Amino acid sequence: MTILEELQSRYPQLGGCRDEIAKALDLLLTCYRNGGQVLVCGNGGSAADAEHIVGELLKKFKRHRDIDASVAAKLPPELAAKLEGALPAVSLVSMCGILTAFANDVAWETAFAQQVYGLGRAGDVLIALSTSGNSSNCVNAALVARAKGLKVIALTGAGGGRLGAVADAGVAVPETETYKVQELHLPVYHALCASVEEALFGTN
User: Cβ distance 41 to 128 under 8 Å?
Assistant: First the structure.
């Protein structure tokens, strides 16, 4: 049983999201195999989820990850032994300096969009989390991402909202109450992170 199949078995209510979750996985794998990075944003509890996702990508999640042998050869063995293979990922919500400066000087609803404009490259992926699907700062970030050639994965509640409408993969979980949406986002992004790790480090 694959990780995504196990997800469906444990959370049958996500059956309607199966194709979009698989599409999100394909986008992530294509991004990483081509040397890209993942940017992540959200508000409130979804900001905490953004940090969580980045944490699962930048270090070991379920399995051992070797670091690049050419890098390890240039390090003291005791240091190299304490490093783990990493998948490049950036939490936009953790950059308090640029976020507060841009929100104060320009507009909060375009703060994530400014970060995506500055950091995003064609081939990268933006993961935007919004339980309503209508968070303006996430929608604007997605619009800038698309304009710059990034792919967009949206994690939303039922219907997808404006964010889902502009996403390349829109995982709209079948709930509308904020905390219930977030409860389903967690197993989705855990399954995605675990699947990416299995695909890219599974031979270790």
Answer: yes
